[in-house]
Write a structure and sequence with these properties.
Layout: H1 12-15, H2 19-26, E1 41-45, E2 51-55, H3 81-90, H4 108-120, H5 124-143
Antiparallel strand pairs: 1-2
């Protein structure tokens, strides 16, 4: 019994036709390099005298027609502009984008307690008892 894939049934040129697509795929780039853009913001004075903060990338010219689309081309924002505009809308204080502020102390106690519970496996009752003891100690120290 012969296999349907035996070499006698496949002619030589047809048998090697799978090599061409494989060779073409081997030459393709499999990933794109990350787009680098400036994360900087600057203050810009408007005609009415007010100032606003804008991403540096948004002050650059729009993208060019690199593919020859001609009349179908729609100019887009420069790379990084949309990301920086989105970041601008998410921050609490927009001035932090131009000049950051010092950070406060880290909230380490809740993270430490969670890690301790995970590592040592305390049950809820034991954890509640320890928290009550810690709270009582803290209250005594406040009164002193």
């Amino acid at each position: 019994m012969k296999s349907i894939f035996s070499m006698s049934m496949i002619s030589a040129p047809a048998g090697r036709c799978w090599l061409l697509p494989l060779a073409l795929l081997a030459g393709c780039q499999t990933h794109l390099e990350p787009v680098s853009y400036s994360p900087d913001f600057q203050h810009k004075t408007l005609a009415n005298g007010s100032t606003e903060i804008l991403p540096v990338e948004c002050l650059k010219p729009a993208s060019k027609d690199d593919f020859g689309l001609d009349e179908d081309f729609v100019p887009l924002l420069p790379p990084g502009c949309a990301n920086n505009l989105t970041l601008m809308r998410m921050v609490e204080q927009p001035d932090d984008l131009a000049q950051g502020r010092p950070t406060g102390p880290a909230m380490a106690a809740p993270v430490g307690r969670a890690a301790q519970v995970y590592i040592e496996g305390y049950d809820r009752a034991e954890l509640r008892r320890r928290q009550d003891e810690q709270q009582a100690r803290a209250d005594r120290q406040e009164k002193q």
